[in-house]
Amino acid sequence: MSANPSRINPILATDTVSGEISFFIFNSLLTYDENASIKSELAKSYEFLDNKTLVFYLRDDVFWSDGQRFSANDVIFTYESILSPNISTPYSESFKHVQKVEKLGDFIVKVTYKYPYFKALETWMMGLLPEHILKNENSLMTSEFNQKPIGTGMFTLKDFSISKDFILQANKKYFLGSPKFDNIIYHFVPDPSTSFLMLKSGELDMAEISPLQLKKQVNKEFTDKFNIYEGISHSYSYVGFNLKLPKFQNPYVREALSLAIDRQALIDILLFGEGFTCTGPFLPGTNAFNAKMKAPKQDIKKAVELLKKAGYDEKNPFEFEIITNSGPRVYIAQILQHQFKSVGVNMKIRVMEWQAFLNTVIAPRKFEALLMAWSLGIKPDAYSIWHSESDKIGGFNFIGYKNEKVDKLIKEAEKIVDEEEFGKIYREIFELIAKDNPYLFLYIPKNLTAVKKNISPIYPSIIGITHNILEWKKE
């Protein structure tokens, strides 16, 4: 791990490391299988009584790691904790569509939604908390539980120390069967080059590696010991325009800038070819992804023609400033600056520290263009980024995007529980956004993970390689 976990608590875990550790310690009612299809976990089964009423039938063979039996009380308690005014969690947004949650028996829970909701099932992929331990807790935000968690998961936490290694121990009584090895040991290694050296020396069994390391430092000695698994990252890089500014309201300008970019060159230079061109806002491989939309090919001639239509030429060049945070994105900006110059566009670059970037640029909307990245979910929710109602302080539509048809389709999709119908609408949303060019979608990196060859069976999945970690053996 390159950073410390903050709170190992599924309803409070907002950083990557805390989320990963929570995955091993806690379970949810539902989860994803290797194909990103929904499957039961703590729920034995579920059914919709109608398009607003969902009933979960819980497993009766699940125990918390302290020996207490899991029941409907824990589901109710977790739901009430998430909505508590004493808890600050971004996950409460997912539950605002719920009208009530009722216990119909020790192992039966009924959820009533205010209206049909497209993420009715995904909402319950939240890890659940033990009522018997936390019901009298004064402050869950500062509770000792967050560093000494009790879960139902396949592992338990042996010890938690800031900036030190810590150990997960196999839960021998896990309801799906005990893991095939006793411990997972996490090493705190902030520097990726150090973790690569630890891999080479045999100190690590598994770690992510960078495209540079893959192309320049991996040799036969390394590949004799390690398998390298490639997967698609759940994030993309983009240029976003301030659409409140007249200069970016002209669609010719946005299209011209898109056609000025050689996206494959970005991937080849920055990622040594280990990435994919990004064609739109939703994750490839999901039913929201529109495969017919292709990444624009660089077309210098057409870009120049479109800029002339918009009133820009050598005597009156189009100029703008792009702002990004310090780090690797500076190199993206420099390559884009060079590519834009080929069509007569002058782009200035301003680089800022991350918190200053958020507080003085994003929050007050003081920018012309931004270079950033967004995460990609298995089940997307376009409202927070692409609906015009999210163009507000605290909202994620900080570029000021507004398309009435997109707005209408997002609201329409929110109340559709049928996966095929939902996917059809979201593929249309994908196409409309991609054609509008509010963002210049750039690329999606690959995830590269090295794992020792004596660990198996491992096979990649859209949800990552650890989806079947319960089956892993170390020879």
What would you note in describing this structure?
It is a single chain. The chain is of the alpha+beta class and 475 residues long. It folds into two domains: 16-146, Dipeptide-binding Protein, domain 1 (Alpha-Beta Complex); 235-446, Dipeptide-binding Protein, Domain 3 (Dipeptide-binding Protein, domain 3), CATH 3.10.105. Helices cover 28% and strands 22% of the residues. The chain has 15 helices and 19 strands. Strands 10, 11, 12, 13, 14, 15, 16 and 17 form an eight-stranded mixed β-sheet that branches. A hairpin with a 2-residue loop joins strand 3 and strand 4 (53-58). The radius of gyration is 24 Å and the shape is globular.
Question: What's the topology here?
Answer:
Blueprint: H1 16-25, E1 30-32, E2 38-40, E3 43-50, E4 53-58, H2 72-83, E5 98-105, E6 108-113, H3 131-134, E7 155-157, E8 166-170, E9 183-186, H4 192-200, E10 206-208, H5 211-217, H6 220-225, E11 226-232, E12 235-241, H7 246-249, H8 251-259, H9 263-271, E13 275-277, H10 300-309, E14 319-325, H11 329-341, E15 346-352, H12 354-362, E16 369-375, H13 383-386, H14 404-414, H15 419-436, E17 439-452, E18 455-456, E19 473-474
Parallel strand pairs: 14-15, 14-16
Antiparallel strand pairs: 1-2, 3-4, 4-6, 5-6, 7-8, 8-9, 10-17, 11-17, 12-16, 12-17, 13-17, 18-19
